[in-house]
Recover the amino acids of this structure.
């Protein structure tokens, strides 16, 4: 029920306008989003770095409808990359290909992606690519394959919930791909994705072992205690030390666990969303965990 309301809320432009223009809502969103400006994201990354945690800067916004939107996203990412290098921060950037024009003009998207990858390489900053809904998966894999040939440090997010994922990874195996394994944040039809939590977890575990065998420097993007424990055991089975893989968290979630893992010698990186398009991101996080909705509503009510 709560989920259905949130799916409706995410799609309602009227509600979006009312929430995003409300100063109290904007302040409450700060728990999960660093802010609307790059400067705020850089400050969040610096604060995490001081706790020995790396950052992943993510400019919010997806699915641009014209190329000027894509050009704007490229400029914002280039500014972020430059600032990370200038300030000597330990941070990557994570991009969404739909933000670079993937569904508007594929050639332009390729050019935009290469521009970001070249700039990042020149400045020693690493780039990660988010995975979006299942309609974009085949093309995202194909763009990643080309990008990884020239920029092998690029990391791709892969969703454990999708039925196709084991075969997709097999096809990428010759590249020894750098992967961020996540459960998958999008509502997908039963033909495309496992729907049960148990099944998604089982596939996540299978893919964790696979990545220690066939991937490079795997990253596990999850807050799930059982999957984190599984990854540590899988690493030990594969003879890998804590410096050979990393855990990734979303900003503002399980901060206790982030620190605990760092204190135990693990590498941890936190995904830091910033930008004015924070509303769909926030509703996705609330759908995952209704307690966050309660937190948000309490903040709105001033309690
Ligand atoms: C760094 C990172 C990058 C990601 N990139 C992508 C991507 O590119 N594409 C994509 O589809 N998905 C991405 N995701 C989202 C991912 O697919 C899941 O939707 C999200 O991580 C929730 O799943 P979970 O593994 O944490 O497990 P869950 O079963 O959702 O949660 C396990 C436990 O974690 C805690 N928790 C989880 N979510 C929250 C929350 N919102 N608030 C508070 N506590 C919470 C709770 O204790 C919960 O019991 C990313 C996630 C991370 C961490």
């Amino acid at each position: 029920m709560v989920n259905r309301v949130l799916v409706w809320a995410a799609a309602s432009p009227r509600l979006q306008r009312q929430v995003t223009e409300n100063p109290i809502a904007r302040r409450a969103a700060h728990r999960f989003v660093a802010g609307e400006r790059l400067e705020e994201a850089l400050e969040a990354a610096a604060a995490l770095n001081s706790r020995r945690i790396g950052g992943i800067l993510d400019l919010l916004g997806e699915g641009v409808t014209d190329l000027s939107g894509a050009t704007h996203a490229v400029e914002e990412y280039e500014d972020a990359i430059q600032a990370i290098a200038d300030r000597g921060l330990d941070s990557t950037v994570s991009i969404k290909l739909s933000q670079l024009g993937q569904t508007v003009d594929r050639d332009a998207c390729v050019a935009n992606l290469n521009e970001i990858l070249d700039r990042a390489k020149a400045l020693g900053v690493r780039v990660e690519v988010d995975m979006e809904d299942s309609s974009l998966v085949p093309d995202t894999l194909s763009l990643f394959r080309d990008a990884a040939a020239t920029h092998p440090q690029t990391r791709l997010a892969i969703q454990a919930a999708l039925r196709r994922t084991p075969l997709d990874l097999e096809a990428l195996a010759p590249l020894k791909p750098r992967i961020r394994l996540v459960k998958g944040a999008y509502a997908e039809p039963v033909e495309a994705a496992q729907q049960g939590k148990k099944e998604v977890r089982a596939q996540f575990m299978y893919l964790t072992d696979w990545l220690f065998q066939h991937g490079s420097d795997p990253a596990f993007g999850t807050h799930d205690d059982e999957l984190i424990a599984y990854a540590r055991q899988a690493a030990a089975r594969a003879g890998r030390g804590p410096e050979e893989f990393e855990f990734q968290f979303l900003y503002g979630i399980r901060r206790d666990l982030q620190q605990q893992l760092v204190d135990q010698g693990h590498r941890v990186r936190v995904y830091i969303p910033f930008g004015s398009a924070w509303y769909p991101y926030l509703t996705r996080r609330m759908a995952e965990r209704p307690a966050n909705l309660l937190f948000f509503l309490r903040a709105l009510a001033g309690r």
Q: What stands out?
A: Residues 1-33+278-303 form one domain.
